[in-house]
């Protein structure tokens, strides 16, 4: 299993929200289609800590496919998630192509 696969697996686990949040941040640094898909899948994680990391990572990646889900979070998410969505949308501009 390579690093990307390991991070995707860690993000999808239910054990430790801090490990999941760290995995989300690292996926945001690595980028790529598989990272974006994994982050989008984790956007509704029950942990606010994980969600905020996922949201900020999606903003870093400037993934066009994240624009609509981030707008939903901005209008319907918990307060800390709405703040993260505002930051992520500011980073992503109009939702340009994925960084990597």
Structure description:
The chain has 100 residues and is mostly helical. It has one domain (3-92): Leucine-rich Repeat Variant (Alpha Horseshoe), CATH 1.25.10. It is built from 6 helices and no strands. The longest helix is centred in the first third of the chain and has 14 residues, at 17-30. The radius of gyration is 12 Å and the shape is globular. It starts with a helix and ends in an 8-residue tail after the last helix. Residues 94-100 have low confidence and may be disordered.
Report a brief summary of the structure.
It contains 6 helices and no strands. The chain has 100 residues and is mostly helical.
Chain-wise SSE layout:
Blueprint: H1 3-12, H2 17-30, H3 33-41, H4 48-61, H5 67-76, H6 79-92
Helix pairs in contact: 1-2, 1-3, 2-4, 4-6, 5-6
Name some characteristics of this structure.
mainly alpha, Leucine-rich Repeat Variant
Number of strands: 0
| First and last CA, distance | 21 Å
**Largest β-sheet summary:** none
Structural class: mainly alpha
At the first level of CATH, the class is Mainly Alpha
The CATH architecture comes to Alpha Horseshoe
Principal-axes shape call: globular
């Amino acid at each position: 299993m390579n690093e990307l696969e390991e991070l995707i697996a860690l993000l999808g686990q239910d054990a430790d929200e801090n490990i999941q949040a760290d995995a989300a941040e690292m996926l945001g640094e690595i980028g790529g289609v598989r990272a974006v898909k994994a982050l989008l899948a984790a956007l509704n994680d029950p942990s606010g800590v994980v969600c905020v990391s996922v949201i900020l990572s999606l903003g870093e990646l400037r993934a066009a496919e994240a624009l609509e889900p981030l707008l939903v979070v901005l209008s319907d998410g918990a307060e800390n998630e709405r703040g993260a969505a505002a930051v992520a949308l500011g980073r992503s501009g109009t939702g340009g192509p994925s960084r990597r």
